[in-house]
Amino acid sequence: MGRVVVGWMVAVTLLAGVARATMPAARQLSEDELQSEMAQNRALAAYVKRNGAPDVAETRALSDRAPWDSYEVVLYYLDQRREMRFARASILGRPEVQLIRTERQLTEDEAAAMRDKVGRRSLGPDERAEAAARRAENAATMTENAALAAERAAERTEAVTARAESAYHRALLK
What we know:
The chain is an alpha+beta fold.
């Protein structure tokens, strides 16, 4: 009986190794390919809009079964040592669920290896300042929009309170 169990364990281990070996390797995305992925994945698009373009974007095969897509999009922000993975899942045959699958901090060694591996274009101080200014401007716009929405909500609340107060006073006069 023990030999049968050991035999099955070996077979499963070998099959898992073969499945992993046949999975396609990660593939780096061009800017156009990233834009195409963002058009299909709202969570990915919102994250890039909030945090700026990643230093590196790639696709990786997923070994998960349905309802997940066959791949995920991985973004790397090397200065922040951050890795974000986005995936889509289908409901009733349509890819409706789009979410951040995982998020993790890269070690300094991993970030350095990634820089070396992809031959990251080096940004000068002017380009870095422009990118930071764009991110700050986007954040300021989002904050301003949130403040305007809060102000409109406060005005509506004041109007409801004023109507309730006048109705209360009218009820007292009767």
